[in-house]
What does this fold into?
Amino acid sequence: MANPILRMQGICKSYGPGIVACDDASFSLDAGEIHALAGENGAGKTTLMKILFGMEKAQRGAIFIHGEEVFIHRPNDAMARGVGMVHQHFMLVGDLSVAENVTLGIEPRRRGLFDRSAARRLVAEMAEKYDMAVDPDALVRDLSVANRQKVEILKVLARNAEIIILDEPTAVLTPQETKRFFEQLSALRKAGRTIVVITHKLAEIKAICDRITILRKGRTVGTYAVAAISEAEISRRMIGGEPPAETARTAVAVGPGLLSCDRLTCLSPDGRVLLDDVSLELRGGEILGVVGVEGNGQRELVDVLTGRLLPERGKVLLAGTDIVGKTVGEIRRLGLAFIPEDRMADGVDLEGTILDNATAIVRDETAYNAGPFERRRRLSDYAGQLAKRYDVRFDALGEKIRQLSGGNMQKVVCGREIDACGSVLVADQPTRGVDVGAVRTIHDRIEALSVEGKAVLLVSSDLGEIRALCRRAIVLCRGEVVARIQDLASVTEEELGLYMLGLRRQTDAERAS
Amino acid sequence: MKRAFAFFKRLWLRSRPRLLETLVEGGRTLLAILIAYLVAFAVIGLVSEDPDTAIRWFVFGPLSSPAELGEVVKNAAPLMFAGVAACLIIRGGNFNMFTEGAFYVGGLAAAVVSIFVELPGVLAIAVPLLSGIAAAIVVGFVPAVLKEKLGVNEFVSSIMFNFIVLWVGVWLISNVVIDVTSGDNATAPIPDASRLSVLVAGTNVTTGILIALGVAVLASVYLFRTRFGYRLRMTGDNRAFAKNVGIDVARAGLSSQLLGIGVAGLGGGVEILANYRRFNWKSLPGFGFDGFMVAIIAKNKPLLVPFAALFIGYLRSGADLMAFNSDVAQEVVQVIQGLILILVAAEAFFSSAWLRSLLSRRAFARRRADGTEEVDGRA
It folds into this structure.
């Protein structure tokens, strides 16, 4: 075995009492490899890498780079040692150009001032060298997600990172973009860079990685050559047992229309079209998928349906009532529940307890109130049962929800909303950043809703999820419905990708059918 | 016996995380106070010829006699109202500083009603106090509703409102409800029937302190045991989340501000009926601002407010006694007070202290001891 370029040893990190993210984890990298870091959510993958990058501090453990012990206290230390990280949520300045973003903080100077042309030249050269074509003068806010990711990687390269950490890099990409992205990663490997990919997508690990390290519950299960381990074996080691069998999907008879949108149009404050004449009908017993590259109107569609955004034009009928202009509370009382896309910002109160968050929807029901007072016992029973059914791992209902891992937090949100669903559930990225086991649970529950005759609108950037749950789907591109797929089984992912990227669209006749 | 044991064990397991958290936070506050006092002693040592006497008065003076202890409690009472008011406002996610003006309005209204409306028995106290609350809420409605409906920054508008209220009040006691025989710009004397009686003979502690404690308990029950309090807390913690789960956030925010202002108005009324012969405030009393400090020390928990208020009361009494009995100038005393308060209120700088790392080390140890971690599957 070659001398490892990086070694992390005995890393321990806990967030407060009882919440352990890394527990004696170890990790090592050989120069010039693509190394997958895999594990369920909450297994400590991201935390381990954040420690390496100086964003978190380990309570114990040591890091060696080129065999020499290093002490990394902040991201600048890490960058000085040649470690760079691309985060799951991009950290870019939308109003600055690509060249400005890439050189932010390491600006080339001429006579003390920012040398714009040097920055542009630098970015153009790097883009050429690493096969990442991107216009140095474009404003970042105008770029597609795939291009923004390139900017992030260029940013890391511009800082001469030898080791590049990528946190869930393909989560936001279409199949075509993912393929392209893998080619770029291979080019980087050829150029001698070492790459860590945090992921839990097994197919991707198989496709591009050389070795894999599996984490479970904060501990290193082991490091393996990817060629020598099967997908099934990887998943077994991630979960620590056999994965639960996928239950057979039962066909459900489609019932009456529960929710319909008629020619919804939304404009941004500066007049850009966000939703363009979107119509859809959602019937009882069906799960309708909304497919599209992020930022193509999904958010606005969900916001209009849930009463958080007023459309310019159009109607939304829920149980026969036009809900445009109604408050979220009124719409919820009409039977709609929804799982927001961003659980941290919209789905939970991080300062609140698990109890506070799990019972948010039922708080007003008479069963849980005696006069002005809350029935604490019944509320905690309810929350306890919900946590149990959705397999939320926690110490006490009274602990703050911020102490849960992202996956467990999401289980609380999904459980709360699925249980509260009267007739329609709008699920926006319900399983983003959730481990395999929890995904099963959530999918099963969503499916159970449709069996009960309720309707689900599933917005997801994970095509696998859409294909697993939905039969019918619409594809949004630039706020417009470019395709209506009646049977997802008859369409390949590549075809979907073409629609998503706006390279192909159905004729009006096709969409009407 | 066995069942009782099981019950306590469950209770302990369930409350352990919160208990640990409380201990850590409490420990941090105590540490901050300790450091603050050490800094204060250093300052006293620098400026005083006889630091021994000064420090003795500063630290032990307030505890030296029942009368002095009474002063502590008397100083703390308005801070309790102000602190609870600030808790309600901060919990709702607001920073409405009108609690200051509310003290003024509440005191003035209580005084005027007690003077001009003669009522029998306990009503002579209750009606003026309720008028104080009502007057404060009516005036305070303006900045509160401007915030919730139009998004006007309540911090700025409420501070401006404080001055409007102050000068209207000063005009009233100089022109309309002035009692010229007082030789001051002040109202007529408050009738004895409306004065709060002394609770502990030989001290200045009145029944006002009981009202303050009652308000702290009520506020705590409201915040943590009713659905209205839940809506208020959720709105304050994360407005987007509260809106998403169907809470009327504008209403919850408004109720948080109005309740806080009402409590402050009550505090103004109690202060006047307990400690003043006439209403003669010609400047803002400062309690409203202090209230936010008290609330911060009390971690926005109404039940902790009385302790925080007593601490500030003790600090102020000690500082007054030191100024009176030693060569430390009043100005230096003010500086020391400021230093202590900054250190105590900003104890967040201890967040990464050894206490926290100590706890997490114990978390590792516990997991090992429990044997809940399986070790197989490791390569």
